[in-house]
Amino acid sequence: MPKLTLEDLKKLRDQKVAEMNQRDVENKQSQVIVGMGTCGIASGAKKTFDAFIDELAKENLTDVAVRQTGCMGLCHSEPTVEVVVPGMPRVIYGNVDCDTARKIVSEHLVGKRLVSDHVFDKPAADIIG
């Protein structure tokens, strides 16, 4: 294993600080919550989580918190992701792989449109208030 230089360590530190800041919900408008129970992890939720972090960084979206939760009880549609955006209903997406995570960032978080082919659950229009 090659030795790390001081510059390498500084870059690694800055990268990890940025990743941890992405998880902080303080002063964030929106949230992406990835189900990381056993079934979610077995279905690829860690890769999905990382895809959200990477795509948000590419889009320079700093007002979105990405965090994890335990089992959502939706084992048959793992990985599951809940997305919370002001002015929109809370939505749970199912079967979210890396490509779908990127699509959720571009369409839901940026474009303010639901990714309807992966919506698993959302509140009925008459109870949104």
Overall strand count: 5
Count of individual helical segments: 4
Principal-axis shape: globular
CATH topology term: Glutaredoxin
The overall pLDDT, averaged over residues, is 86
Task: Kindly report how far apart the N and C termini lie.
Answer: 56 Å
Describe the structure.
This protein has 129 residues and is of the alpha+beta class. The chain has a single domain (28-127), classed as 3-Layer(aba) Sandwich (Glutaredoxin). Helix content is 39%, strand content 17%. It contains four helices and five strands, in the order H-E-H-H-E-E-E-H-E. It has helices at 6-23, 38-42, 45-58, 98-110; strands at residues 30-35, 64-69, 81-84, 91-93, 119-121. The protein has a five-stranded mixed beta sheet. The chain is globular and about 50 Å long. The protein starts with 5 loop residues before the first helix and ends in an 8-residue tail after the last strand.
